[in-house]
Amino acid sequence: xxxxxxxFISQSFASVAGIAGAAMIPTHLFGHNLHNxxxxxxxxxxxxxxxxxxxxxxxxxxxxxxGHIYGMVDSLINGGGSLVAVYAKEPELLQxxxxxxxxxxxxKSENEIIEDNRIQLVASAxxxxxxxxxxxxxxxxxxDFMADKPGILTLEQLKEVKKVQKETKRIYSIxxxxxxxxxxxxxxxxxxxxxxxxxxxxxxxxxxxRMRPETRAEWFFDPNKAGGILCDIGSHQCDQFLFYTNSxxxxxxxxxxxxxxxxxxxxxxxxxDMSVRSPHATGYIRIDWFTPDGLGxxxxxxxxxxGTEGYIEMRKYIDIAxxxxxNHLFLVNQKETKYYDxxxxxxxxxxxxxxxxxxxxxxxxxxxxxxxATELALIxxxxxxxxxVGL
Length: 391
What we know:
By secondary structure, this protein is an alpha/beta fold. The chain has 2 domains: 57-175, Rossmann fold, CATH 3.40.50.720; 179-348 and 380-387, Dihydrodipicolinate Reductase, domain 2. It contains 14 helices and 16 strands. The strands form 2 sheets. The protein has a 10-stranded mixed β-sheet with strand order 1-15-14-13-12-8-11-10-9-16, with helices on one face. A hairpin with a 3-residue loop joins strand 14 and strand 15. Helix 12 packs across helix 14. The longest helix is centred in the N-terminal third of the chain and has 19 residues, at 5-23. It is globular. It starts with a helix and ends with a strand.
């Protein structure tokens, strides 16, 4: 092979130029420093629970079909509520409830509670399709209503609930517990409000759940009674998108649902995702029932909040990297990288709702926000493309 002198000289000059250029680049920009894996500052936040609760109300419970009712009741009691009575059709569910709250009175019917003028608020985790009709009756009786999610199952129900709420001026509060009942979510709100990551431009909400069909009631597997996967679990993520992006208007870009692992029940949905947007932000939502038994809890719920100056990640229920418990929050911005253990953070939703009942305010959640989060989930569910896994 002949030697190409001109090519050699050209390459030599290029090499020299490259070496000289590299000498002008600060050493901290080289690759080994771009992958710094030093641990972030770790902060265990102290308890910030208020020393005194200002207001109090009397409330009762109708419907115990989902275990979320216990968190709902506890939040009201911790916030100044006094539990008066409970009604449930199912004796076995009633017995479990009485064991936890032994002083509660057992009502003989829904009407006994709805017609009791001492009661200011009714909380319910009844079968989802029954929640909106019950809430309408409660509001028409002059009481406020607190519903487990999904608090409304169809757009027709939403229309009627909004009409009655406007007429009665009562509160219809849906407990989006992945934000309202999670300490890391509360801390994230504080950081976002303080401008820690600049202007929020996107949220990503991941809501994996564990199925365990043997623990589920029959209604759970019927979308006509329980709502589809986006209507149900997706409402959590729609709520968080609106809240963290401070959006008062939003629409659904696309949505899709699938049944990949439960083909014996063709109407069931074990996967769903959707995209939403407001005039100034976007959001992506993915929900599934595929949490494996190897995980130490029911789901690895994660929320990502992207800002113009940084980002927040919440691992709400478990950190698979090894930190104990849940309520983990990671903050990265232009100044620092921090990890927050949020386990001791006080969740103010119950107290705020009690105050709203007494003072007729909207500090726990505005009514418009409550309805818009549900509307996005309902539209996403109704318009969802069905993935045909048989193809």
